[in-house]
Amino acid sequence: MKEQFKRFCESLKKQEDINLIRDTKAVAIGVKNFKFPNEKDEKLAWERLETHCSFCNFNILEPIEELRVTDTRIPDLTNRTCGDCGCVLSYKLRQSVKKCSKWEQ
Ligand code: SF4
Hints:
Blueprint: H1 2-12, H2 18-35, H3 39-51, E1 59-61, E2 80-82, H4 89-92
Antiparallel strand pairs: 1-2
Bound molecules: iron/sulfur cluster.
Iron/sulfur cluster binds next to loops.
């Protein structure tokens, strides 16, 4: 997985679309932090869920069954997706490359 992530980052360097690079990097880091948890990002994810996402109308059940993610460390994120940006919440909440504007409010 680490090798795949490294190769993925190398291929991103060849991209020129800044938004695409940032979005892809955000997803990649969210997936990495989900698969290989660290204390800081787990704590951030809990805080973001408790203070914002759990009350947000964009927190929806992922409509595509194959894309649903089971989250054993934060069960309330299981099968949840952000209806605003379309990101899997288990990934989105564990990265800080592309933060939700609501988290800052
Ligand atoms: S990431 Fe932002 S918009 Fe999406 S569910 Fe959480 S608070 Fe709502």
